[in-house]
Prior knowledge:
Strand content: 5-15%
Number of strands: 8
Amino acid sequence: xxxxxxxxxxxxxxxxxxxxxxxxxxxxxxxxxxxxxxxxxxxxxxxxxxxxxxxxxxxxxxxxxxxxxxxxxxxxxxxxxxxxxxxxxxxxxxxxxxxxxxxxxxxxxxxxxxxxxxxxxxxxxxxxxxxxxxxxxxxxxxxxxxxxxxxxxxxxxxxxxxxxxxxxxxxxxxxxxxxxxxxxxxxxxxxxxxxxxxxxxxxxxxxxxxxxxxxxxxxxxxxxxxxxxxxxxxxxxxxxxxxxxxxxxxxxxxxxxxxxxxxxxxxxxxxxxxxxxxxxxxxxxxxxxxxxxxxxxxxxxxxxxxxxx
Length: 309
């Protein structure tokens, strides 16, 4: 790994197709721009198609000939996830990289279309379902990868199996941490199952450190928005730097399944991408099995992969 790795080090991606969720702003937009710059065909999986068209126009103005495609995806609605996957399968014979990037942070308690707590629904369940529904397309890809974006907050999280929807007790950041922990558990458990199945698909994890995105600034007014959206903003790195760990995971020739990438600076808050530590609890086999079985039941999406030991 190059110590000063930047998006300039991304190899040519001309023959590769990517899906990036949440591609209209922040890390998703920066990721899309970097991949398009290297010739990748990037499918912007977005909830707001108007914002996506604006993002595409901006990228195209800077990079004439950029290969960009907009498809609607609402991760909070599992019907939308299925419709997205069906549409993609009808138009594409293969997919090379799926970047599970989109997320919501610290809203008031809100339920998804299927009645799940919104952060768990968008950050984890929607991506779990999407990955499972696209796995066959990925298996036919060139050096296929799934990159799931977690957070340093996963180390503070745990799964509230007895109160996943926050009906009994809800705290915005506590349930955000749960969703980011779920991302980490999922990414690692997916790696174990893909390996056991002998699949060519690699599952990796990434986190952006502390990056200035609208994830914080769009949080409801309160302590979270005040702290992360205003007070600490001068300490944050820009989106194009925060996107480097997920870009490294998605494109670097030496990145491989089961690895977790984040910034190399103090506290993993900023810096160049490097391998970072996964919380031991996120690699616990029992937690992985339990979350996997629960996620299959809640999404009605079943992976054709063996259970690991």
